[in-house]
Amino acid sequence: xxxxxxxxxxxxxxxxxxxxxxxxxxxxxxxxxxxxxxxxxxxxxxxxxxxxxxxxxxxxxxxxxxxxxxxxxxxxxxxxxxxxxxxxxxxxxxxxxxxxxxxxxxxxxxxxxxxxxxxxxxxxxxxxxxxxxxxxxxxxxxxxxxxxxxxxxxxxxxxxxxxxxxxxxxxxxxxxxxxxxxxxxxxxxxxxxxxxxxxxxxxxxxxxxxxxxxxxxxxxxxxxxxxxxxxxxxxxxxxxxxxxxxxxxxxxxxxxxxxxxxxxxxxxxxxxxxxxxxxxxxxxxxxxxxxxxxxxxxxxxxxxxxxxxxxxxxxxxxxxxxxxxxxxxxxxxxxxxxxxxxxxxxxxxxxxxxxxxxxxxxxxxxxxxxxxxxxxxxxxxxxxxxxxxxxxxxx
Length: 395
Description:
Layout: H1 2-20, H2 24-30, H3 33-50, H4 54-78, H5 83-111, H6 114-145, H7 148-171, H8 180-183, H9 191-204, H10 206-222, H11 228-235, H12 240-267, H13 270-288, H14 294-322, H15 325-340, H16 342-356, H17 362-382
Helix pairs in contact: 1-2, 1-5, 1-6, 1-7, 2-16, 3-5, 3-9, 3-15, 4-5, 4-7, 5-15, 6-7, 6-12, 6-14, 9-15, 10-15, 10-16, 10-17, 11-12, 12-14, 13-14, 13-17, 16-17
């Protein structure tokens, strides 16, 4: 249910912004609140989560996100929404998602042995991508009939249901607790030392470090897909059902990627599979850059998301298997803080390029795809192929 809320937000927040402005920069930022959240709280989130029961963190973050979308719905209904308020609330929800992501990563490692991590993450990612199909479709239907405020209330309801189900699980589960060492001294004391311990592990483990650096540069390019709604709605002047179809097409591709990830990983080693997926995503962005119809955009978006999700599932499972449990929260958020915060930076760059070319986003997609090919080719030849079988460092 929480993931369905994320899927609804993919379309609901950008549509709310487009009611106020046709600015591609604002539209791009509205589609990247999670990236801004990592920029704001990515570094302290990991050490904090490592000191807490992850189930409690999941519940509190759903409370925050439900509240944010209720507030957005009220503002939309009153007609008093301001652009900066919408973006600020979206960034609060994005920050809550950062804590949610870190806690979920730890909880999954606790619940599943190493051999089960890939299957568990495939199931979770399938749910996430299914939500990217259902969420935009629900938002489009409700926004067209009831209004955008109704769609935002639906968004809030998904987080409320998620909250209730998580609270029920947490009450009956005493197995998942933070390490005793991590709980001494309260939440705030020693966060800097905890963060540095995770950072040292990330730096010492060269395969993880190299992959994180490459992902950071690539996410600058992948951020151009935050302009999908703008591309479809403004540039191609598509009606709302076709805009929803383009966004949902990414969800269909993501479902296929999540379902296929485990099978592909059984046949192809992790880092070669990650590199191949990134190359395919780059090609899809190039196709978007020459798209002139909605179905071109839909197919290319589906392929791009399919490749990215395969990469995401394999990368996440590999990291969970490599990193010790008591370091997992901070290592995860430190790495993500580096490459996910590249998304809002990339969104700003994509918006600026779109403005420079007369509000046409196609050159931004072409440039991003070409740069991605150069980055992954160089990264594979220089670094990744050397480390594919490297074991985790000893602590």
